[in-house]
């Protein structure tokens, strides 16, 4: 007997015997549900034998037999009723546990999110992909068969999704493309560092989503609940089904604010801010502008995160503002990084270290933010240095800029498209899915080992577009992605260290050294960031104009 815990109050098992009852009792279970009909197998004990043994030790039992492959809606309702009325914790069993796990999943449809249900059953060893539509439909069998269908469906209308749609339309204007995204607005997120530094206005980083969806592309304003790649289907909230011939997945990352205890309750007040949110970036500048003394902490969580340089960009611009106002000497700056290096590509570190020294900032590596008490102005960090026990340290602050922990969205992590770590599993050169050959991914959610930046998506979108068009013509991939990403490190107002690199940390500069030497702070790079990149984003990338993003061709070997 193997007990598979789905949550604290419920577990499933394959067929049990009367001899297993004492162990079930010792494990703390107070009720057992049998979901296997008597006589299904020659070596199977009857329910009455199980019930008799259970009664002797004070365990209640319910017999709810389900024929394999025939879990009805009424069965799920009866199972839910039994779970509610029986004393917990409860264990259910059938031949393998699958029927019991299915009944539990359907019974929880209106109580938990689909992602939570799929994650819990997956962790217990059960794949509920076959009942996803029923779970989304409140645990009941859907009756709507009117599926919408498109040649290409794109999940996510962020930088990657809109750019991919525009690049495809520029190559084949007649394509039937749908973009699925519930958001009303679209943000130029690279601008938020500049908002937090007092350079950009927040409203200049936002547009209505409707104004950006390429002409002729259908916008489905809904959230995705699940994927059925074996059926070429995307399931939306409310159980609507969208079918596709080819799929592009690029919904961006989930900012997991709740992973830091107390953080959500204090964001935007008590001196706690973040440039990773549109509404909070102005508060960063408000805090910086008003600070004349005290301690300022800037945090960076474990990787991966979008724009890995953004946490230190906030530090540099803040310190520069204090330097210009003559109060830097009164401010104790700490950069608390969960990682062990200042920047992942060593060629840029010397230039950055000069600014760390200029601003007299303390670099605290292996410091991961785990809790905040805003009113008390205290934060706690787990310090996990190599080969030493984890130590929790307390730090007081007057201002704290937080970069939140980040993961793939829940509906991605539990999907058949994800790898073991929860990211879309693609070939890092062609960006095509490793298992489903009519699926591609780009942007922050896929598992290629590149920096997660808008600049990366700008280069990836044409690669995906080229390879999809080639696939539609019956050919193999023609374009490859070299891992390009760019991180304009704003080391002071008016100067930037322009980090541009690809897979393995290979430097991939866009300009000759005589124009911009990316390993040094330059005014030319600042001009690029402040004046040129916003229009390149709005008027180029999102319009299918692939400025500085010509796809690299795959060369025959």
UniProtKB/TrEMBL annotation:
Stretches assigned to the FAD/NAD(P)-binding domain: 150-265
Domain Beta-lactamase hydrolase-like protein phosphatase-like as annotated: residue spans: 5-109
Molecular function GO labels: FAD binding; hydrolase activity; quinone binding; sulfide:quinone oxidoreductase activity
Top-level taxon of origin: Bacteria
Keywords: FAD, Flavoprotein, Oxidoreductase, Quinone, Transit peptide
Cofactor(s) required, per the database record: FAD
One of the GO biological process terms: sulfide oxidation, using sulfide:quinone oxidoreductase
Pfam families hit by this protein: BLH_phosphatase, Pyr_redox_2
Entries under PANTHER family matching the protein: SULFIDE:QUINONE OXIDOREDUCTASE, SULFIDE:QUINONE OXIDOREDUCTASE, MITOCHONDRIAL
The protein, known as: Sulfide:quinone oxidoreductase
């Amino acid at each position: 007997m193997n007990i598979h815990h789905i949550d604290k109050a419920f577990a499933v098992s394959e067929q049990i015997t009367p001899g297993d009852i004492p162990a079930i009792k010792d494990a703390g279970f107070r009720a057992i549900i049998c979901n296997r009909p008597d006589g299904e197998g020659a070596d199977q004990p009857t329910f009455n034998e199980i019930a008799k043994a259970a009664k002797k030790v004070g365990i209640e039992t319910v017999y709810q037999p389900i024929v394999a492959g025939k879990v009805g809606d009424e069965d799920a309702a009866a199972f839910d009723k039994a779970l509610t009325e029986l004393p917990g914790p409860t264990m259910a069993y059938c031949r393998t546990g699958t029927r019991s796990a299915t009944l539990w999943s359907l019974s929880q449809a209106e109580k938990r999110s689909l992602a939570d249900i799929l994650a819990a059953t997956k962790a217990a060893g059960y794949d509920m992909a076959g009942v996803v539509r029923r779970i989304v439909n409140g645990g009941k069998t859907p009756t709507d068969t009117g599926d919408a269908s498109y040649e290409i469906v794109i999940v996510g209308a962020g930088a990657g999704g809109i750019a991919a749609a525009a690049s495809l339309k520029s190559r084949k204007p007649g394509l039937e493309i749908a973009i699925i995204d519930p958001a009303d607005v679209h943000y130029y997120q690279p601008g938020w560092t500049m908002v937090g530094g007092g350079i950009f206005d927040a409203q200049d980083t936002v547009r209505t989503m409707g104004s950006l969806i390429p002409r002729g592309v259908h916008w489905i304003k809904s959230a995705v609940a699940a994927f059925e790649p074996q059926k070429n289907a995307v399931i939306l909230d409310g159980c609507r089904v969208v079918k596709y011939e080819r799929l592009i997945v690029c919904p961006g990352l989930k900012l997991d604010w709740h992973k830091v205890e107390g953080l959500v309750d204090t964001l935007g007040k008590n001196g706690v801010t973040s440039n990773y949110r549109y509404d909070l970036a102005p508060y960063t500048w408000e805090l910086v502008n008003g600070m004349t003394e005290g301690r300022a902490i800037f945090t960076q969580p474990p990787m991966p995160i979008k724009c890995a340089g953004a946490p230190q960009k906030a530090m540099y611009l803040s310190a520069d503002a204090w330097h210009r106002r003559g109060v830097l000497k009164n401010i104790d700056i700490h950069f608390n990084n969960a990682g062990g290096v200042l920047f992942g590509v060593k060629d840029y570190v010397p230039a950055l270290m000069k600014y760390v020294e200029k601003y007299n900032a303390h670099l605290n590596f292996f410091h991961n933010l785990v809790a905040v008490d805003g009113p008390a102005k205290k934060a706690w960090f787990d310090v996990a240095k190599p080969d030493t026990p984890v130590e929790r340290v307390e730090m007081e602050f007057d201002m704290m800029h937080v970069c939140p922990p980040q993961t793939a969205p829940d509906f991605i992590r539990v999907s058949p498209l994800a790898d073991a770590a929860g990211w879309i599993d693609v070939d890092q050169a062609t960006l095509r899915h490793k298992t489903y050959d009519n699926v591609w991914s780009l942007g922050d959610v896929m598992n290629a080992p590149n920096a997660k930046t808008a600049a990366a998506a700008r280069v990836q979108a044409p690669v995906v577009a080229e390879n999809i068009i080639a696939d539609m013509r019956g050919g193999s991939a023609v374009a490859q992605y070299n891992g390009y990403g760019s991180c304009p490190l704003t080391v002071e107002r008016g100067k930037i260290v322009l980090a541009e690199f690809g897979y393995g940390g290979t430097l991939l500069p866009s300009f000759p050294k005589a124009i911009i030497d990316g390993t040094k702070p330059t005014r030319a790079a600042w001009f690029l960031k402040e004046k040129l990149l916003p229009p390149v984003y709005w008027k180029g990338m999102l319009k299918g104009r692939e400025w500085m993003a010509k796809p690299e061709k795959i060369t025959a070997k």
